[in-house]
Amino acid sequence: MEEYLQYMKTLRSQMNDVEDEAAKISVEEEMQLTNVRTLESDIESAKSGITQLKEDTEKMRAAKGEICSKILEKQKRIASLEFDTIKLSQTLELIQQERVGLSSKLSEKRAYYSKVAEDMNAKLQKQQEWVSSTRKIRRELQKHDLATGKVVGEISKAEGMALYFSLIAWLGLISQIENQLNFVQQFKLKLKPPHEYLLISAYWSVVRTNLINELDSAKARLEEILTLKAKVLTENTKIKLAIEDVKCRENEFKLKAAGLTALEEEYKALLSDKAGETEYLQSLEKQVEKLKEIRHVVKCACGEEYNVALNKKHAPIMQQLVLRQDNPPNRHH
């Protein structure tokens, strides 16, 4: 019995030991499970970290590719800028050379225009001389008008009026010529400097010279018309030569197309002005022919008759009035 109890105590002690051991083992198992769970969570976090690292690596690779492409673009841009720099430097050298050439050409043009200005000053002096001569002729015409008034007082009223109106008609022609010259002067002042004014001013100076010659020929004979026409043709030839010279200078200076077009328009305008002057001269000649046809018979108190007419031997611009006697006068006249 005692042995049984002893065995039972031993068994209980062993069972307690086993329970304690089992409790320890369960505690250890719990600890191991906790460790396993911790390790699993660490593994999951490590996996997620690896995945994030892979994603970051891919992003870095993509960013690296973009950076490399940008670097290549920048290198290409730098190369193109270097090429443009070289090209611009060459262009700058060409511009400097062209600037030197243009400076020399401008110097030549400046000298040419200075010479033309001197010529224009000389022509202006001639025009002033012409104005003074025109005033002198006008005064002579007025004196002639007064002398004619005395003759009108001696003859009958009808014949005197005819002579008076003839003189008034010629004075009107002279006034028209002077008005046309004033219009030419005003037209010259409206032109644009420098070459347009110089070119057309040269032409109008020639026209003014022709009108001066025409006005001076008012006191000359009918044969001077041929000389005047020859002078007009000579001046027209000079004008054409001057225009051709200007065109040659333009070709030498390599003027732009706009300048050439403007000069062509000016040349056409000059030709039209020349045609207008020709028509004006023709109208003057027609008026002279009409005045030549004027005839008037004057009967003197003594019974003799006189024909009042224009002398055909005088110039077409200003013809003198003469009295032609059909029958020779008696001694008491």
From TrEMBL:
Organism: Vigna mungo
Entry keywords, A to Z: Coiled coil
Name of the protein described by the UniProt record: Uncharacterized protein
Coiled-coil zones: 1-56, 274-301
